[in-house]
Every structure is written in C-alpha cells, then in structure tokens.
Design brief:
The chain has 274 residues and is an all-alpha fold. Helices cover 66% and strands 0% of the residues.
Length: 274
C-alpha cells in the first residue's frame, strides 16, 4: 500500500510592513496640548486673562502692604519689581508642578489608546503650562519696567537660568507627585497642606542674606530659594547671590524626575485601568 505524500502548501507571501507614522509622539503631544488649551483656558470666563491677573494682583497686594511700612524694598527702588522677582518664579513652579501632578488623571481616558503614552501626557502639560507661565512673566515684567522707574539692568543669562531651574524643579516634583497622587489620592490634600508655608520660606518678600543664622542655613536646602535668588540677580546687577547652587537644584530635579519615571513606567497601566 502506497502512502500518499502530502503536497507542500504554497508559500504565503509575506505581508507588507505597515507604514509607520511619522513622529507619533509629537502628534500625540500636540493633540494633548490642544485639548489642554480648550479645557483649561477655553471654558473658563476670561481664559488666559486670569493667568495674568493672579500674579498681578498678588504683586499689587504685596506692594500696597509693605510700602505702607517701609520706605524702600530690600533691593532696588521699586516695590513692584522686587515682589515680582519673588512671586513670578514661585507661581511658575507651583502652577506647573501642580498641573504635571494631575497629568494621568487629566488624560486617563486618552491613555487607553496605545498611541498615547504617559510620557506624552506629562510633556504635553509641561510644554503648554511652561509656555503660558513664561508669557505671563514676560507681560508682568514688561509692564513693571515700562510703568516704574526701576533702574534695573536685565541680565538675560541669569533670567534664563532662573526659569530653567524653576522648570526643572517643577518637572521633577510634578512627576514624583503624579505617581503619589495617582496611587494615593489623599496625597493631594497632604501635599497642599505641606505646601502652604512654602510661600513664607522661599524668600518671596525678603532676601536670603537678611535671614540670621542658623535659619539661613536651613533655608539653603529649599530649592526655591535658589530659583528666586537667580531671578533677582537677573534684574539687580548689584545683588551678589553667593549662595546660589544651580547644581543642587538641577540634581534634585533630575533625581525626582528619574524616580518618578521609574515608578510610572512600572505602574502606569495599573493607574490608568485601576
């Protein structure tokens, strides 16, 4: 009995490779930025106007209160410029880090799509809110320099350093808080309570050099003291802030950012689908 030998099946032609999208991450980030603009600023009355009014009103209030009791600010001749150099970088950090901390919760539905990653959500919020705060700072400082006799000389390199430190710190703290807020929702209230005295110890309405020891040494560990100090060196050429340590601020920011990314890469699926 002859056993029939099965004929080999015809070879299946290989499937053509799927065309890869060009710059998918850039498209996802751009889409998230547009969504953020429409949700955060497009639906509220006044929109971007409130982003400018918040620091403007804060500077006006500090100027009004302290000008009643003092003849001149600790630096320079104009109260508005002194308090702007403290309040603008502080609000830049506080607003940006808070927005980054809510990145996953804000884009939770979109993160279900495979083309959108958690890093897209982080960088979209970082990019839009950093640019918005930069524009707000430009408007505030330009208005003060035009309306008041500040007698200041702007140092662009020191200004860029101050904003770079504030942005790096906000990204690091925001990424770490993004993990904690997503896993432990109560952390948002805890962090809010811990942050309340931060305004008082970040040299917003006084200078670091005027603080006596040992409190001055303790204040040095607050990275926002370095951010505010760098901002003031940008507008006051006579102010020699020897205590500044950009390496400390950038090193701390990088550590927090890397630590947060490690946890997000491990637990972001549990967070999104939890």
């Amino acid at each position: 009995m002859t056993i029939p030998i099965p004929r080999p099946l015809p070879a299946t032609p290989p499937r053509p490779p799927r065309p890869r999208r060009r710059l998918p991450a850039t498209r996802a980030v751009a889409a998230l930025v547009l969504r953020e603009m429409s949700v955060s600023y497009g639906r509220s009355p006044g929109g971007y106007l409130w982003a400018v009014m918040e620091p403007a009103l804060g500077i006006f209030l500090l100027t009004f209160i302290f000008s009643l009791g003092f003849a001149a600010p600790p630096l320079g001749h104009a109260f508005p410029l002194f308090y702007a150099t403290g309040l603008v970088p502080f609000l830049f950090y506080a607003d940006l880090s808070g927005k980054i901390a809510q990145s996953l919760n804000f884009s939770r539905q979109l993160l279900a799509y495979p083309s959108v990653t958690f890093t897209d959500a982080l960088f979209a919020r970082f990019a839009l809110n950093a640019l918005t705060s930069l524009l707000v700072g430009y408007i505030i400082f330009a208005a003060i320099l035009l309306c008041f006799d500040t007698r200041s000389v702007l140092d662009p390199r020191a200004l860029a350093l101050a904003y770079a430190m504030a942005a790096a710190l906000a990204l690091g703290v925001g990424t770490m808080n993004c993990v904690l807020v997503s896993i432990f929702p109560v952390w948002q209230q805890v962090w809010s309570i811990l942050n309340r005295p931060l305004f008082l110890v970040s040299c917003v309405f006084f200078i670091y050099d005027a603080v006596p020891e040992p409190y001055r040494g303790w204040l040095w560990w607050n990275p926002l003291v370095h951010v505010v100090g760098a901002m003031r060196t940008a507008f006051y050429p006579v102010y020699d802030a020897l205590y500044l340590s950009p390496a400390y601020v950038f090193g701390l920011s990088l550590f927090l950012f890397a630590f947060g990314l490690v946890f997000l890469s491990r637990y972001h699926r549990d967070i999104v689908h939890g």
